[in-house]
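Why should sequence recovery work at all? Because a backbone constrains its sequence more than one might expect. Tight turns favour small or flexible residues, buried strands favour hydrophobic ones, and helices have their own preferences. The token representation captures these environments compactly. In the example below, the structure is given first.
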């Protein structure tokens, strides 16, 4: 499977500008890309202004994603703010033409930024099956919680979409590598660049890692761009068989 990670410069609270900008970036997408991965809240930048920025799941942003998927003949995913009745979610949406949409609601809300006061946490993991790969989506702060992410022999690719600040960029890079190695899976970490309304800057440093934590492809810090990598399920399964650490894993339950 050939995946493409997209690192855009986001303008906070400006859906129109962000979707136009990403549309422009995708003009450089290779024709054979099969999965497009966008950052967390790719249409607004990370915001707790849920009441003003939220939209129904199947509204303007969803229609834009469907259009991109159809035009590029590829699946597309990323998160945006969704309202259901009077409840708000930071929702990861996965769209593949001809298949029903699949979503994951962010489990771990960033309390230090007030996300927990403006959003409802998700209650379930979501495993997405696409082109023989099992994909586990997580959103930004989820990356810090390895028990939630633990591979239960149920996924091959961990997708982390984020708005991860520059001040914690070493944490971002370290945790992505750790999650790849401990779960023996591919990892795609997709971040943005730009500055938010509170003056925080975002370095990007989006990356695709193999199960050893080695970089397959990456996007330089503070630069917009797209990086593409071919993921091999055969290579992954061979690695897992040659070094079957998963056999010695502890059993656990999340209450």
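From this structural description, the recovered sequence reads:
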């Amino acid at each position: 499977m050939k995946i493409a990670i997209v690192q855009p410069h986001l303008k906070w609270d400006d859906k129109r500008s962000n979707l136009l900008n990403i549309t422009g970036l995708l003009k450089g997408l290779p024709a054979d890309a099969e999965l497009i991965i966008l950052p967390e809240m790719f249409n607004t930048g990370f915001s707790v202004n849920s009441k003003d920025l939220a939209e129904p799941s199947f509204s303007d942003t969803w229609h834009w994603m469907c259009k991109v998927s159809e035009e590029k003949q590829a699946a597309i995913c990323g998160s945006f703010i969704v309202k259901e009745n009077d409840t708000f979610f930071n929702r990861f949406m996965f769209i593949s033409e001809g298949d029903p949409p699949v979503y994951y609601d962010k489990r771990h809300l960033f309390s230090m930024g007030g996300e927990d006061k403006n959003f409802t946490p998700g209650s379930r993991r979501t495993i997405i099956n696409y082109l023989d790969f099992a994909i586990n989506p997580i959103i930004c702060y989820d990356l810090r919680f390895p028990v939630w992410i633990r591979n239960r022999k149920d996924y091959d690719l961990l997708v982390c979409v984020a708005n991860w600040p520059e001040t914690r960029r070493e944490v971002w890079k370290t945790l992505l590598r750790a999650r790849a190695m401990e779960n023996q899976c591919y990892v795609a970490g997709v971040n943005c660049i730009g500055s938010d309304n509170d003056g925080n800057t975002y370095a990007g440093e989006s990356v695709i890692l193999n199960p050893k934590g080695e970089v397959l492809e990456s996007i330089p810090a503070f630069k917009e761009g797209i990086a593409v990598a071919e993921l091999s399920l055969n290579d992954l399964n061979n690695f897992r068989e040659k070094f079957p650490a998963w056999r010695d894993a502890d059993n656990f339950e999340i209450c």
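A few observations help interpret the result. Residues 139 and 155 are 16 Å apart (CA to CA).
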